[in-house]
Amino acid sequence: MNETALKELLYKMADDQLIIGHRNSEWTGMGPLLEEDIAFSSMAQDKVGQSHALYQMLHSLGESEPDTVAFTRNAEQFHNCTLTELPNGEYDFSLIRHFLFDTAEAIRFELLTESSYAPLAQLAKKIQGEIRYHTMHANAWIKQLGSATEESVNRLQTSLEKALPYALGIFEPSPYEQELIAEGIFAGEEVLKEKWISRITEILSQTSLQLPDLSTLKPEFGGRTGQHTEHLQPLVEEMSEVFRIDPGAEW
Amino acid sequence: MESLDPRVNRLDLKGFQGNLTRKAPLDQFGTFEVFIQMKEGKPYQHEGIVHAPNEEMAFIFAKEQFSRRSTCSGLFVVETRNVFVTDFTEGEDTIYNYISDEFPKEGDKEEYEFFHLMKRGKQHQHVGSVEARTPQEALALAKPAFINEKPVFNAWVVKTSDILFTSEEDKHIWDTLPEKKFRDASDYKASDKIKAFKERNAG
Amino acid sequence: MYGGGNTFESAKFEGLENEDPQKLAEFEARIERGEKIEPNDWMPQMYKKQLIRMIEQHAHSEIIGALPEGTWITRAPGFKRKLALMAKVQDEVGHAQLLYSAAETLGKSREQMIDDLIEGKSKYSNIFNYPAFTWADSCFISWLVDAGAIVNQLANARGSYGPYCRALDRICAEESFHLKYGHHCVIHMATGTPKQRQMMQEAIDRWWGPMMHFFGPPDKVSVHTEVLMKWKVKMASNDECRNQFLDMYVPKIWELGFTIPDPNLKKNPETKKWEYTEPDWDEFKRVINGDGPCNAERLAVRRVAEERGKWVRQALLTPKTKYVTPLA
């Protein structure tokens, strides 16, 4: 098995889950209503938990311990897509990102249930229930707010347009696409993207939101190769502020 | 004022000052009662309420508020105003002593779910369902089965069609719950560390 | 998380002369027998008022209590701590939800309660008006403030009002994780590097005063408190709770080699009671009346959260469902 290709895939997935989980956790205690505050926090925990499982998988392939990997790298060593690192903004942006990202994440894990790399296929199967809840949550919110008041529709539409180029960055091709596909590790970003487009289109068509012509948008690539927005380095510094007081200490 | 919480600094508290309007009175969502089944085969039990704009959201909210710990195999929600509630009794007095055998006889038959309170201070639990035309008829039909049994202090009757149940395909949303050890006290054992610390200091 | 103390003092105590004597006698007999009062049961106005006040303050303490620890939510060191702190702060929000619901069964809507909180009309536990300067402060809160809250909540869970007791049973079960997690964190700080020990000792020094305040000033014995105790609204005196806390946790702090900033703190072997320097009750009053280090920030954050969430709530509001009082 092409380990370099596999590791590249695992790193970008793990980093995606960690960074979006971290961002979503910023809402805890400050959400728009108590019940939603709780639901959003649970999903953030799921994502951080999933990132840990993926770093653990990398550790078994010879990489450093999950804590070391997550808490001691600098921004340019992260492979998350830039969508995940953008600041939370208002709830409309957080929800749109949640919808766009989680739809892709759900399809990615669905595809990975067939992966020739057994530990990954196993993980993908195990967390299907968690992911099902995440997309259930995202779809319900987008469908409801996307066809509610003028304000909610406008807010979501603006956020959708802002987020889409970054969301297309999720599918930035890996240098190892062919190897991953050939070895049956992963069906590839292009397949994922096509399925994603049809699924978000299906949900958005049930709302008053307009999906722009995606072919006219320039995807925000770079995240997968460590070229991030200015928002990631401060996030990483904040996340590891205590850890870095003494990375050798047990906290 | 700089906060110690970086999240709070990002909220830009100053931008909001003086810009507060009191909410319209009671712009609050509806009330939904939440019932949980911990394991297959166990009765559904009342766990509390959520406020939500509709039953789909109520289900989504209830799932994390009431089943993020331990185990869960099913959940349902029903809007509070769709629950028919009897009076309360106490001591050895069952509520079925007060159920009239007379009831309105119009309407079509529908299924009704029953929930009993067997001990004051505890939760209502699901006991079964009957087909009836009205909640009063449902209670009257249930009466012979319960009147000579352990006292029931309060009963709730809900039309089955008013309830949003977990669908079969959604049942695996709880699959990984038992693995979320970070929410479990048993994952935080450190007595070895204390022991080693004491020994080090004594020696 | 909730202490005691300030709940009852300023509520005007109204006489019972307007209550139906027969119903009052039945009500008191039911409590005497150890049975719970449920929302539909007859209850004296004073009972209802005091319960709303107490449960509401408890709920506010949970939602505000999410903020001092939340200070460190994005900075928790390592996966284990990150996941646990996220889950713990989430629990505090969840506890607020449970408690607001319990108070709602008595006829005050959640929205009215939250309005009263952000307009500064309601109180919450004083300790959350203090800042969490370092990670060690969040460890102190997770372990010892939660420990204090559990002492108080376990007492209240034996009270007479069914919905409040059910909420507390659930809360206490969830908080067993908080307590263990908090202790686990403090143990790691204690047995870690000199820097970690120093951080932890400084946090203990900072938080000891507010912790002693947490249970409230010594109770004045009045007809009022006697009635509330008879009705099982107030279950233990502030001093009893404080003493129980000291008894359970001072030895655990000492065994980790930390000092407590009170030279007079010791257990009297004869009375079996703890002796200590009276905390500064003037400071307690000042902070409760709004002049603490973080009062303004805590309320501002809640206001902004409410304000920023307004469009979401308004968008979803529909006449198809209706707000009603919860059943239980």
Description:
The complex is a heterotrimer of chains A (251), B (203) and C (328). With 251 residues, chain A is mainly alpha-helical. Chain A has a single domain, classed as Ferritin. In chain A, 63% of the residues lie in helices and 0% in strands. Chain A has eleven helices and no strands. In chain A, helix 5 runs antiparallel to helix 7. Chain A is globular. Chain A starts with a helix and ends in a 12-residue tail after the last helix. Chain B is an alpha+beta fold and 203 residues long. In chain B, a hairpin with a 7-residue loop joins strand 1 and strand 2. The longest helix of chain B is centred in the N-terminal third of the chain and has 12 residues. Chain B contains four helices and eight strands; from the N terminus they run αββαββββαββα. In chain B, the strands form two sheets. Chain B has a four-stranded antiparallel beta sheet, covered by helices on one side. Chain B has one domain. The mean pLDDT of chain B is 92. In chain B, 21% of the residues lie in helices and 25% in strands. The radius of gyration of chain B is 24 Å and the shape is extended. Chain C has 328 residues and is an all-alpha fold. Chain C has one domain: Ferritin (Up-down Bundle), CATH 1.20.1260.10. Chain C is built from eleven helices and two strands. A two-stranded antiparallel sheet of chain C has the order 1-2. In chain C, helix 2 runs antiparallel to helix 3, helix 5 runs parallel beside helix 7 and helix 6 packs antiparallel against helix 7. The radius of gyration of chain C is 20 Å and the shape is globular. In chain C, 56% of the residues are buried. At the B-C interface, helix 1, strand 1, strand 2 and helix 4 of B face helix 3, helix 4, helix 6 and helix 11 of C. Chain B: It comes from Fulvivirga marina. Chain B: This is Phenylacetic acid degradation b. Chain C: One of its GO terms (molecular function) is phenylacetyl-CoA 1,2-epoxidase activity. Chain C: One of its GO terms (cellular component) is cytosol. Chain C: This is 1,2-phenylacetyl-CoA epoxidase subunit A. Chain C: Its EC number is 1.14.13.149.
